[in-house]
């Protein structure tokens, strides 16, 4: 019997055939943590009594959650992280030189196809868009991996997702993954990996990052796309080291097969307080909003910014709405300035933020007050996620978020462009 993509990656690292459900110790190719999880991982590393990380070129600490530092406590978190990174000679991306970890590390070519990547953040699964087995782990496990270059994994079952057709104009990767989460539920993929196949070329790479990023919202350990020509071209001039792409076998066995017709998808919204509480935007009752956030590790990439700018160009953010736009990295922020997107956002009345995870977790740069509603391109809308427990978060793609910012209520871009369904 052939192997799924995740089985092929784990088997190659283990040096033997593996089976779903089996616990295996494997070498890791890259380890990461952020300003929240790194101090705990560093403590675990110290407690092991080792002095040096297993390979400084394969460890990165990225300050992104409470940066630029929002208070003394967050500054201390970053100080601990920064000092350890300097001591060990590992990758550290200071404010002004980095960005949001799951946008930054692919941009820098530090996570690659066929690799095993572990990180102190649940959305480490983002790198599955490149064909890596990437998964989030607790800080103790991350500290162990930094010290030894190894980790344990439970080989996940694989749910195959067959993609067919082409996306409509205002449909994006966010809608694909919200549709999938609605279908399986927030725990329907526990101890499983999603493997995306079929017409994956219909999804631009930035959209694949979005889909892989939110695999965890269905409970999945990972979400993987076989690396195609677009991935290899993306990595051609940026890969930090040699890599070997791996692919599923034609006779691989899957726990389940789900078919998704991309052409039938419409722009979707996940209502409070679950990513699975999904409805087409044009079937949602009128919902006035107070804030829009466009960015995060889910939707802070170039195509996300382009789609938002297309909607906002020549328009104004509603006077009763705050709109915060957050490019995922310093490089993307600079590109937005050079190519005119920054002017579009600022002229429209949006705030253009430096790269940060801040509002996604209710940290800073957009915390909600009691009774406020926000349309956000982030990944979670649990009660109190972005601020007060009586606030509400609606998840949507960047085009829907931008249209909502203009109209002051949750809306489809079709309303602004005079388009109907069809």
Helix content: 25-40%
Number of helices: 14
CATH fold annotation of the largest domain: Aconitase, domain 3
Q: For the terminal residues, how far apart are their CA atoms? A: 43 Å
Kindly give the count of domains: 2
Side by side, the strands of the main sheet go 4-3-2-5-6
Helix/strand class: alpha/beta
Describe the structure.
With 422 residues, the protein is α/β, with parallel strands linked by helices. It has two domains: 5-260, Aconitase, domain 3 (2-Layer Sandwich); 269-417, Aconitase, domain 3. It contains 14 helices and 18 strands. The strands form five sheets. The chain has a five-stranded parallel sheet, covered by helices on one side. Helix 10 (302-312) crosses helix 12 (341-348).
Topology:
Layout: H1 5-14, E1 23-27, E2 30-34, H2 38-47, E3 59-62, H3 72-88, E4 91-92, H4 101-107, E5 116-119, E6 133-136, H5 139-148, E7 150-154, E8 157-164, H6 173-184, E9 192-198, H7 205-213, E10 222-224, H8 229-235, E11 256-261, E12 268-270, E13 278-280, E14 291-294, H9 296-299, H10 302-312, E15 322-325, H11 330-338, H12 341-348, E16 351-352, E17 373-376, E18 392-395, H13 398-407, H14 413-417
Parallel strand pairs: 2-3, 2-5, 3-4, 5-6, 8-9, 8-11, 9-10, 14-15, 14-17, 15-16, 17-18
Antiparallel strand pairs: 1-7, 12-13
């Amino acid at each position: 019997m052939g192997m799924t993509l995740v089985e092929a990656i784990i088997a190659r690292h283990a040096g033997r055939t593996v089976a779903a459900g089996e616990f295996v110790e494997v070498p890791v190719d890259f380890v990461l943590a952020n300003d929240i999880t790194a101090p705990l991982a560093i403590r675990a590393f110290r407690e092991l009594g080792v002095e040096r990380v297993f390979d400084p070129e394969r460890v990165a600490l990225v300050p992104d959650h409470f940066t630029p530092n929002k208070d003394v406590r967050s500054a201390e978190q970053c100080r601990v992280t920064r000092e350890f990174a300097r001591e060990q000679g590992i990758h550290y991306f200071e404010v002004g030189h980095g960005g949001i970890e799951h946008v930054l590390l692919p941009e820098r070519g530090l996570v690659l196809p066929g690799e095993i990547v572990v990180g102190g953040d649940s959305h480490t699964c983002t790198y599955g868009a490149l064909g890596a087995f990437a998964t989030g782990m607790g800080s103790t496990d991350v500290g162990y991996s930094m010290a030894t270059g190894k980790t344990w994994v439970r080989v996940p079952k694989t749910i195959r997702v067959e993609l067919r057709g082409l996306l409509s104009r205002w449909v994006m990767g966010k809608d694909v993954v919200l549709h999938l989460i609605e279908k399986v539920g927030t725990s329907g993929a526990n101890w499983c990996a999603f493997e995306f196949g079929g017409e994956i070329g219909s999804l631009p790479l930035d959209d694949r990052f979005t889909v892989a990023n939110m695999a965890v919202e269905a409970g999945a350990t990972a979400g993987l796309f076989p690396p195609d020509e677009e991935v290899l071209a993306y990595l051609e001039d940026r890969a930090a080291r040699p890599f070997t792409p791996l692919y599923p076998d034609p006779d691989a066995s899957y726990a389940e097969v789900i078919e998704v017709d991309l052409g039938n998808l419409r722009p979707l919204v996940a209502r409070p307080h679950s990513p699975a509480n999904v409805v087409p935007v044009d079937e949602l009752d009128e919902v006035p909003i107070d804030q829009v956030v466009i960015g995060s590790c889910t939707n802070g990439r170039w195509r996300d910014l382009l789609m938002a700018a297309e909607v906002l160009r020549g328009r104004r953010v509603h006077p009763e709405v705050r709109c915060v736009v957050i490019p995922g990295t310093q490089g993307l922020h600079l590109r937005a300035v050079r190519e005119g997107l920054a002017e579009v956002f600022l002229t429209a009345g949006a705030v253009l933020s430096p790269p940060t995870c801040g509002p996604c977790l209710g940290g800073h740069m957009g915390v909600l007050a009691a009774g406020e509603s926000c349309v956000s391109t982030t990944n979670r809308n649990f009660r109190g996620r972005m601020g007060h427990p009586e606030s509400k978060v609606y998840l949507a793609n960047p085009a829907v978020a931008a249209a909502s910012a203009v109209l002051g209520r949750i809306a489809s871009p079709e309303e602004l462009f005079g388009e109907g369904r069809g």
